[in-house]
Amino acid sequence: MEGFEGHPGTQKLASVLSKRMKREGESPLVLDFGEIQENYSLLTNTFPVPIPKGEYSVCRLVGGLAYKTDKGEHAGHENQTETHNTGAHEHVLKPPVLKPGDRVLVAWVQNEACVIDVIVS
């Protein structure tokens, strides 16, 4: 390491930090299983310490966010008239919210856990 001549301790520290940063950047995405605890913390198989709610991410589809579908058209709905027989409508979908006891699929992105989905049998 250039610039650290005469300071062997500093040179060694810089070398160790440089190697660790390179390894961190090379770490692959790791999938894991976990469980939502009673206090909504996340306990995963590979990280045995509960991660408090708010300190892990949750994908939209298991985060309880409602969203609308595109307007569909088919028969069988009340808005059919003689002049307008398309049945055009939209639905609001409300995916389930995470709850204690849910077994989940977790992706580790660098050092952050992200709940991808609920695992069902």
Describe this structure in words.
The chain is α+β, with helices and mostly antiparallel strands and 121 residues long. The chain has one domain (29-118). The chain has one helix at residues 8-26; strands spanning 30-36, 42-44, 57-58, 67-68, 92-93, 103-109, 112-118. The strands form two sheets. A five-stranded mixed beta sheet has the order 2-1-6-7-3, with no helix packed on it. The chain has a two-stranded antiparallel ribbon with strand order 4-5.
Shape: elongated
Query: Could you report the average pLDDT, rounded to the nearest whole number?
Result: 78
The first-to-last residue Cα distance is 54 Å
Largest sheet: 5 strands, mixed
Cα Rg: 25 Å
The H/E string reads HEEEEEEE
Q: Helix content range of the residues, please? A: 10-25%
Secondary-structure class: alpha+beta
Q: Helical stretch count? A: 1
Low-confidence stretches: none
List the strand order in the largest sheet: 2-1-6-7-3
Total of domains: 1
What's the total count of β strands? 7
Proportion of residues in extended strands: 15-25%
